[in-house]
Hints:
This protein is α/β, with parallel strands linked by helices and 503 residues long. It has 24 helices and 14 strands. The protein is elongated and about 100 Å long. The chain starts with 9 loop residues before the first helix and ends in an 18-residue tail after the last helix.
Amino acid sequence: xxxxxxxxxxxxxxxxxYKSRSIKDELRDNMIxxxxxxxxxxxxxxxxxxxxxxxxxxxxxxxxxxxxLGLRGQAKTxxxxxxxxxxxxxxxxxxxxxxxxxxxxxxxxxxxxxxxELGDELKIKWIHRSERYTEKLATPDVTVADLIGDVDPIKAxxxxxxxxxxxxxxxxxxPRSHRSIFVINELPDLQARIQVSxxxxxxESDIQIRGFKIRLPLDIQFVFTANPEDYTxxxxxxxxxxxxxxxxxxxxYPKSISVSQKITEQEADITEHQHSSVIVFPLVKEIIEQIxxxxxxxxxxxxxxxxxxxxxxxxxxxxxxxxxxxxxxxDEPKVYCRISDIVGVIPAITGKVELVFEGEQEGPxxxxxxxxxxxxxxxxxxxxxxxxxxxxKKEQNPYNPVTIWFSKNNVIDILSNxxxxxxxxxxxxxxxxxxxxxQYKPDADGNLSLLFMEFILHGLSEYSQLSKLRLETGFQFxxxxxxxxxMNENEELNPEDDPDYFR
Length: 503
């Protein structure tokens, strides 16, 4: 590997074995090396090993411009940003060039003249790969001047140049991304007339600015991202532009809870103190991921809009902070996330799901509660026997001691701020509850056992075996039948109206 610190002129560069390559060839060559060496330039991307990544690798090998098409929160921008790992660490460029021009292949008249005049004495600079990435969010106010360039009257006046001189041009983001990766996020949001200005760049690799007879053979790797729903909601990709983008790659949400958990834990912003003092058992993590799964198939949520992975990330951060708050209030050294703490994730849900008409009628908070209830019910089925099936099969019901105890007018409150000691005392006071955990989760001990005990109460309420009432400070569990008789006159027995009112 050459020592770039001693290579400061064009003459020094010529003495090395450096060879110029287009950026697409550079990406292709480094992709081949990566595949041969079994290295991963897309570290931190989970769930795409058999789908998106092979297609992306193929597109790079084909030297294609790329469109990443998918719903919100599917790592489209992250994939684009990770492409810089396939660039050479440093490349040489003409010092003073606004367009990072290759000394072996200058593209502007000014740089061509410099090469002729200075020859081997031409000074060069080294550009790190981190500087060879440009990203632009497509918004309705983006102009052709922003992307391509325009005449700069101040520059003309300062340099005392006529407007016919190409040196008065102020180049936009795309020319300044020569020999770089250029990403346009949310492409459909770009006005159609602005999209048209990209035609020549993609097909002929040149640009047109005002009336100048200028042709710049730009060397750029284009990556576009888009949400398919944008095609009908806000705008569309004009057909000729779509035709010029070589490869379209469809992204997707994680296909398993385990993959989704990896993404959530990687992206969640958790402090070191929270990591050491707040314990989150896998059961709680599974319920959080299940909430997103329920949302993506919910009749109340617009499936075309999608449910971003940011929902589970924010929910995970919230539940940890919710438990941490209890730890601080009770002045305890360590705290364990509980099932009842999931109420703390509601703010992370309400702002991240796009509701359809039926969902708007219910309201975002009620929809969030419905999603949580369904998530608890589905996770419960994966961990404990279905109470309804036990009744139908007339098998011995392990839940009978618990439901019978509640039928004797026993009531318990699990409060959000209850200390670890109080939480344990409440759950241990319910006959038969610990025995169910010992039967179906024999490896669970200590605080994990307590978590499963609480989980059983929530699960039984989802199957209408117990009544669960949401209090301002937590949850109250009591007998289902007695709660029906003690309802106020104006209340109707309809669990669908409020999934946290009773079960």
